[in-house]
Amino acid sequence: MLVCHCHAVNDNTIRRCVDAGARSGHEVREACGAGASCGGCRPTIDRLVELHGGAQNAIEARGTQG
Ligand code: FES
User: Fold this and answer.
1) Distance 52 CA to ligand 1 centre (A)
2) Within its chain, how far is the Cα of 15 from the centroid?
């Protein structure tokens, strides 16, 4: 699904940014440019970071608990 039309960034790329450590829309913007122009995609990016980042945090938390 194309999320950022200005920079042609899809949801897979945004998930990869989260996997690489981005934990906010701002960090995704710095990592791949999504959301850096008109800003119309930012609510969707924030939601993806929230959903995917939350899942990543849960996985990491489970990892630290053994
Ligand atoms: S659609 Fe993402 S910055 Fe415009």
Assistant:
1) 20
2) 5
Contacts of 25 (CB under 8 A, 6+ apart): 35, 42, 45, 46, 49
10 lines ligand 1 (CB under 6 A): no
pLDDT digits (tens, 9 = 90+) for 30-52: 999 999 999 999 999 999 999 99
45 CB within 6 A, ligand 1 = no
Superfamily of domain 2-64: BFD-like [2Fe-2S]-binding domain (1.10.10.1100)
Ligand 1 neighbour 38 (Cβ under 6 A): yes
pTM value is 0.86
